[in-house]
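Module 6 notes. Inverse folding takes a fixed backbone as the condition and produces residue identities as the prediction. Think of it as a translation problem where the source language is geometry and the target language is the twenty amino acids. Below is one complete input and output pair. Work through it position by position during the lab.
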């Protein structure tokens, strides 16, 4: 303890052993209150920003939906047969997707994910065709390209479904013969 006493006696001026200046507590309270007020403002700003983002994203969804609906109405005005065809193809695609989801397994998730990626590319291509159709709705080439796009999507889904069925059957056969 002798060395500790020497240390304190040499460095005593470095230690704050005095009372704080008058008004220290008041200044400290003011600083705390200012922090609480600014923190409250930050929370309000965050909630307003979140609400604004929600309103903007919902607006974009509504605008996108209305645009697609208008394009479909325009197609229906040009030809009710085109509207019927697109509805028919959309129904087939929906059914194929439902079947794929039913037979999907953890082992086939990568195949399904790649198929969905390819589907999104085809859907973006279709959106471009719709825009072209909007500007030039008399063009039979655009209509044929739209139908071909639907066929490609259906073919892709059917091929994927076939692949998933083959994997399922292969796995089932190997399980029956004790290879798994």
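Target side of the pair, the amino acids:
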């Amino acid at each position: 303890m002798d060395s500790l006493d020497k240390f304190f006696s040499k460095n005593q001026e470095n230690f704050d052993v005095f009372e704080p200046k008058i008004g220290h507590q008041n200044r400290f309270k003011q600083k705390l209150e200012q922090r609480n007020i600014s923190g409250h403002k930050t929370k309000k700003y965050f909630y307003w920003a979140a609400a604004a983002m929600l309103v903007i994203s919902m607006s974009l969804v509504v605008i996108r939906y209305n645009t697609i609906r208008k394009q479909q109405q325009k197609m229906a005005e040009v030809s009710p047969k085109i509207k019927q065809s697109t509805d028919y193809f959309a129904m087939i695609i929906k059914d194929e997707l439902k079947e794929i989801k039913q037979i999907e397994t953890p082992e086939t998730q990568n195949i399904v994910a790649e198929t969905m990626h390819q589907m999104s590319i085809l859907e973006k291509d279709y959106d471009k065709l719709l825009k072209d159709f909007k500007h030039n709705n008399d063009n039979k080439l655009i209509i044929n390209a739209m139908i071909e796009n639907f066929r490609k999507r259906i073919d892709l889904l059917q091929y994927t479904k076939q692949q998933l069925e083959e994997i399922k059957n292969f796995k089932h056969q190997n399980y029956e013969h004790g290879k798994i």
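Reference fact for the lab report: The chain has a mean pLDDT of 76.
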